[in-house]
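Hey,
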Amino acid sequence: MSPEEKAVAVKRNKYLRYIGRPVTLGPEFSAEARDHLQALISRGMSYAAMQDQSGIPSTTLCYNAAEVRSRIHRSVYESIMRLRYDPVFDGYGGLVPSLPTARRLQALWADGFDRRFFLESLGGIEEKQVGRLLHADNPRVYAKTEQAVAALYRKFECVDPGDAGVSPYGQTRARLSASKYGYAPRNCWDLDTIEDPNAFPEWTGRCGSEAGARLHTKYAIPRCTACQAAVRVRREKIKEEKS
C-alpha cells in the first residue's frame, strides 16, 4: 500500500468510527462470531461449505471458530453471521453420522468384499480412508460419502462377491478380518435397522436375549454385544437373588 493509499484508508477508518461503523470490531463481536460458527459446526456444517456460502477462506473461519480474537474485521463478522445451516451444500452435503456408512461397509466386508473392491467402486478414495470409514473412526462423514456408500450397498446387497470380481483370496482375507472385529454381514440388517443407532445386528433372530446367546453358542457364532449384555444382566440378577 502506497503512502497515499494508507492515508486514505486511515481517513476512511476514522470516519467510519465517527459514524459508529468501525472497520474492526471488539472481542464481544468475535465471541458472537465464534459461537455462531460452533453452532453450525455442531449441526454438521463443514468449513468447506461455509467457505462456499460466505466467500471467507476456511482457514479464517477455523481461526474464528477456535478462539475469541481481540479484533475482528466487520466484513468477516457480518459474513459469518449471515451463514445459515442448510442440509445440502454444493456437493459437500454437510456432515452426517458415520454409523450407517460404517455398518454398510462392514456388512459387505464381512461377506467377502475386500478393500480393493471398495477402492475401485467408490473412486477417488484412498485406502486409509476406507479403513477410517470401516471402523467409524470419525463420528461424522460427508453426506456425499454416505450417499455413495449407500448406493454401493444397494447395488451389491444381494450379489456374491465372486460375481463382483473379488478373488477367493480377497474374500477369505476380508471375512477373517471382519470376524476379528465382530462385524455383522448383510443378512443381519434390514433397511431400517442399519440406519437406526439404537438397533443392533440380528445374528440369530433372538439377539438381545438369553435365547439369542444360546443360539450363538449352538451355531458357533461369536456373541454379539446385545447378547453379551443380556448375559451380563442375567448374571447380575442371579447375584442379587443369591445375596
